[in-house]
Amino acid sequence: xxxxxxxxxxxxxxxxxxxxxxxxxxxxxxxxxxxxxxxxxxxxxxxxxxxxxxxxxxxxxxxxxxxxxxxxxxxxxxxxxxxxxxxxxxxxxxxxxxxxxxxxxxxxxxxxxxxxxxxxxxxxxxxxxxxxxxxxxxxxxxxxxxxxxxxxxxxxxxxxxxxxxxxxxxxxxxxxxxxxxxxxxxxxxxxxxxxxxxxxxxxxxxxxxxxxxxxxxxxxxxxxxxxxxxxxxxxxxxxxxxxxxxxxxxxxxxxxxxxxxxxxxxxxxxx
Length: 271
Prior knowledge:
- The protein is built from ten helices and eight strands.
- The protein is of the alpha/beta class.
- It has one domain (2-270): Alpha/Beta hydrolase fold, catalytic domain (Rossmann fold, 3-Layer(aba) Sandwich).
- The chain starts with a strand and ends with a helix.
């Protein structure tokens, strides 16, 4: 794994984004982490790069894991624009964008921008839209143990002991939580205007959903897929809100097969 910092210039100001790269060659993936931080996707990024010809980029959302977040960066839409510029800066093409939870929201906003550098989008238990009758759980009011019960199919396999954390880890966790609250917005993990933008997404899209997710249920996932033209929906059994953590071997072929089937080279060969 190689780590680099990329300096971007947006209308609002300059922004540094830390990016980890797994493998130097293969189909490029942009893998966007959720509110739990980069550690929720780094093992999956490594697995994907090891088991498939994949070049996996995992940016750290500014403000997470001790990185700086400028005061003007307060919305998912702005962060998505930054990642669109990151793809330009890296000169990537045929990119498969994969996002989980709030990372899925960012991926959805990025898809709505219509970048020609993207060939497919995979939303894994994403938040971001409002669906009547399917509320998003208020995770900010939950303890880590309570959150794991909503997030995981089998919480007993991922026991969490808060007392084992160091002071540095506690500080990073608190900063991550504060950053997540900034990005989540006034409607808490949703933007009522997002569904309208999703109707214009031009990319092949897969919405994958863990059936045991009680943060955002499968009905919410179906609504997400219905909001995007031509999007496919896939249920993942025996897993919850973070399939990349709980059942990575199940998620890996789902992600790879969809991205590979919709790669730009495949489209060109069949046209």
